Please model this.
Amino acid sequence: MLPRVKRFLLGSPLRTTELHEQKLSKKAALTVFASDNLSSNAYATEEILLVLMAFPALLHYAFPISICIVVLLTLVVLSYGQLIRAYPSGGGAYTVAKENLGVGAGLVAAAALLIDYILTVAVSVAAGVAAIVSAFPVLLPYRALLGALAIAILTLVNLRGARESARAFAPPVYTFLVTIYTLILAGLYRSGAGSAPPATVQSDALNLSQLAMIFLLGRAFAHGCVALTGVEAISNGVQAFQQPVVRNAQITMYVMAAILGSLFLGLSYLATAFHILPKLDGSETVVSQIARQVFGESVPGWGLLYYLTQFSTMAILILAANTSYAGFPRLASILAADRFVPRQLANLGDRLVFSNGILVLGAAALALIWSFGGNVHALIPLYAIGVFLSFTLSQAGLVVHWRKSREAGRWWRFGLNALGALTTGLVLLIIAVVKFQEGAWLVVVAVPAVMLLFWKTRRHYFELQTELTLADFEKPRVARHTVIVPVPIHLNRVVLTAIEYAKSISRDVIAVTVNTGEAKTDTLLHNWKKFVEDVPLIVLDSPYRSVARPLLRFIGEIEDLRTDDKVTVVLPEFVPQRWWHNLLHNQTSLILKGALLFRPGIVVTSVPHHLGEMRAGRGREPRHAQ
Amino acid sequence: MLPRVKRFLLGSPLRTTELHEQKLSKKAALTVFASDNLSSNAYATEEILLVLMAFPALLHYAFPISICIVVLLTLVVLSYGQLIRAYPSGGGAYTVAKENLGVGAGLVAAAALLIDYILTVAVSVAAGVAAIVSAFPVLLPYRALLGALAIAILTLVNLRGARESARAFAPPVYTFLVTIYTLILAGLYRSGAGSAPPATVQSDALNLSQLAMIFLLGRAFAHGCVALTGVEAISNGVQAFQQPVVRNAQITMYVMAAILGSLFLGLSYLATAFHILPKLDGSETVVSQIARQVFGESVPGWGLLYYLTQFSTMAILILAANTSYAGFPRLASILAADRFVPRQLANLGDRLVFSNGILVLGAAALALIWSFGGNVHALIPLYAIGVFLSFTLSQAGLVVHWRKSREAGRWWRFGLNALGALTTGLVLLIIAVVKFQEGAWLVVVAVPAVMLLFWKTRRHYFELQTELTLADFEKPRVARHTVIVPVPIHLNRVVLTAIEYAKSISRDVIAVTVNTGEAKTDTLLHNWKKFVEDVPLIVLDSPYRSVARPLLRFIGEIEDLRTDDKVTVVLPEFVPQRWWHNLLHNQTSLILKGALLFRPGIVVTSVPHHLGEMRAGRGREPRHAQ
Model:
């Protein structure tokens, strides 16, 4: 039944030969790679305001802070332009850092990226749910549930093998761009026409010391830096572009950055102009409040535009989460090939996707969404730290790369990337410090923890390889076989079948039974004489009524006694017709199997008897010779 | 480590020969067997009031209803006196019903009793917690937790093998009797001295139709019948009495009933006299309210008596729960001997108690307490129905018994038990009807469900016995052995060891590997020629990348092809040093084992390789011949 359910949900398996890749035009690539980055507009402005609202007099700093962030964005994008040039085959932070800075740095980047992919899913889905909740406040208590549902659907769709299809991605991305630009233009017109209430600057800013003010503005800046998440997406996927790949990828990235910057500045300006404050309970997003003010009030038909804004915001956020479903499993499979994570993460599933990676990502994001109650504000402090860690490492890697390079113009590229590395490193430090208490410490702990797992895993595989090598392999020759058959106190045909099996694989068979004092051994001995003449039966007395312990002791003694042979334990086993029938039997053979698993050098053989097969006559009994 | 924890909690195992029984005097027997019955005073009066308080004008009926219940008690006790006479070896309802009315009736009684043992634990523990909560209202939110804790401790103590020690039981039972009698006498004095406020009879009784009033009084009566729970305890344990057993047991039971009746009437009278109403939120019991009024107010030193009442009430309720820990496992072991429940319930554990029965009881009671939030009022409607079911069945069984008997006085005994059977049957019907909606339906459903399990279990064992019989057993002779060894695409020494093992048990070995297209088979074939000349290797292509499916198909084909032999699948297996290392390997051999378990006639052999043993040199490798 399970395989049928699986096939219904995931579709039929695909042949390995059906794997193929498709090259994207610039316009198509924008829709595929930009959603992660552009969707951060849904929460970036809100995060700045969230910090500043503690001192309303500082709220007008939101726009200048946004300008600072756009300057940072420009620097990062120019830096990444050089990364695309240096790694036209698609250099993720892991590859760049590993090649130029060593394996350790590469693994830091990989750990940061894996964590960030998970956070991208959790944050994007939570923000998408927030957009819907803003339009339909009745859904507020079901945030976590809605988020979990969205993740379940995303996981399923990706397990089915949703290729990153530009055709499917284009409508939501362009709808989002059109509605948000419309919102910004209409908002600018309205605020210019004086429909925005006048700003009232309060004087409590004077109560703040200069240091406290710098710290507060720094925090606001650090919070706003989530706008930059997803910038690296294009540099990871350069391979997917049409020729000339480098130029096309660079241009697409610059276009994306320009769109991001303009949207971000526009929304930050409007939020300040309309004096919008974030709702702490998450009942309405800042974007929703702007849209409600701009669209929702005077002109009645424009209300539709409001809903369009909310739905397209949700759609692009879901697409953003979806990009992680491509990135995480791909990175995990690269790490698996290098043996830093379990091999299974490199397995192509039935539908030619890295199913295990998709499942791990889905489960982790689900756990995050659930434990943070689907609350965006609670999740965001964890975010961005990993992004800036990988920014810094890849820029630093490029610095080394250009230093060794012999290319023309390597010196200004070196300078640009050095500036990029220094700046993003500084921002990383700021983020880690100001967000530490709010949750960033979780990531600060998680990165080394994940790295430890990498090393432990790698070491295990390495040791395994050394141990299993065929060099200096000497064939073991089995001189003698001792076979031990544990026998219950009530003899039955299943046991006798097992004894015959044991006799067929060795001439040295010992049967052993445990007498717990309840039943008499007379009948057993009588039946033994009648049915099995040629196998010695040893009766162990068990005053404490335990069956497994005396048997295990006996098996151990036999193994110690005979040094020149191989000990095989043959276990007669019932396989009942229904699973719950297992509850009706003492699971002695299961206990023995479990215990013998940890005894080196003992081979365990199960001779199964399928209950009901004799009666029903539909099974295949061990055949008898004529 | 687990065995050490177990030993710490339960103590060292005991030898079978340490099992012995102890005979009880009447006084000792009273403390051992009466707690279940007498403890029902903690909630019986409260249950009557709970129904009547819907119409305050009817509250003064509480005392007359209590008198009716005491009349019923007298009848039941006299009936049970005859049961003791007829079954001096201890006749539980199961035995009596089975012998006289047939197996079906016996199983109804058994199902009812098992359910009632569980409910006794749950209700008594919940009521014990309620007594403590009444004294310390701050504990109210932790009722379920306290109940769960009490059950955990009871289970542990009984797993250690707490014999029903009369010496340990006497102090709490006698303290309870002394304090409650003191309470009643002091209360009577106070109410007589006029310190009780005058009763104000309201007139809303007139608004009730006669039918509705009868139904209401019937409900109150049905609720009060929980007072009778535990009456049967002595008749189950007649064996434990000193000679003359019948007379001693009868006298003890009559004394117990007299105490129960007087306490019950006393408490019901005081509750009416002091106009006490139950608290619906369970924050204070009726007994606690009586005690607070009688002891707590005027004379300051008497406050201590109040706490004594509450603690001794709790203590006797815990003892009552404890009696089920003797009764349930004993009945379960009798049923297990008759093969109606899993055999394991008849196993004597390390400490010479029926550990599995104790665990089942504890788990079931815990589940009940937890799902009803530790609320006595919610649990009680489930109670009593099983008790009266077994009352009715055992009295009916006695009717048949006396009819067949040739004893003097059998006719009046016949009449007495017939009256008993009819009356308890009628009460059973009333209880089932009026409490149906409140939760009794759960029991009405559970009894047949448990019976179905009895029959299904019995049938399974019966079929098993038929199938495994040694009559007409013909030795299977294995003519040929085919051994199949699944081999991974990367050859290693674990696999080669398994191949050598396979060769040692048969001359007909086939190795098989699956090519999923990722790795090249050239290296494998090269290594194969080098290390294994004499075993054919078959390569299966797997375009869908599945490993297990092609292997299983291949094994099935080989089995179909060769009709004159036995197929053994030898699986090379890793046993990693740490459990989590298992996550780092494809669990192909586990999947194969699971799938092959359901293929009749295929023997599965695991050749384990313990990782690290070679390197560490502390394990025992399969020995090689010189």
In short: The longest strand of chain A covers residues 565-575. Strands of chain A lie at 480-487, 509-515, 537-541, 565-575, 602-610. Chain A touches chain B through 87 residues (CB under 8 Å).
